[in-house]
Design a protein that fits this description.
With 86 residues, the chain is mostly helical. 69% of the residues lie in helices and 0% in strands. The radius of gyration is 15 Å and the shape is globular.
């Protein structure tokens, strides 16, 4: 495999892993906040809407990177639960 493609594959795998972690963190938020009907990325969006009084369109338009930045404090020390790891 060409070095360029190896690097690209590593980058995309890392991005996918970060996105996956954000979705799993959403499950954590949903459980902690006792959300009954949402989880994953929807829980992340709902939590940020409630916390910051942002409109749904604003939160949904944010990149995963921006969402993680907004959740920096909440995610500090959090690790993927065992059942979410490979």
């Amino acid at each position: 495999m060409d070095r360029k493609y190896q690097v690209l594959q590593q980058l995309k795998n890392a991005e996918a892993g970060l996105s996956y972690g954000l979705h799993v963190f959403g499950d954590h938020i949903a459980k902690r906040e006792k959300y009954r009907s949402i989880d994953g990325i929807q829980a992340v969006h709902f939590y940020l809407m409630q916390k910051h009084h942002w409109l749904p369109a604003v939160v949904r338009s944010m990149s995963d990177e921006d969402l993680r930045f907004c959740l920096t404090e909440e995610m500090d020390g959090w690790v993927l639960p065992g059942d979410a790891r490979e």
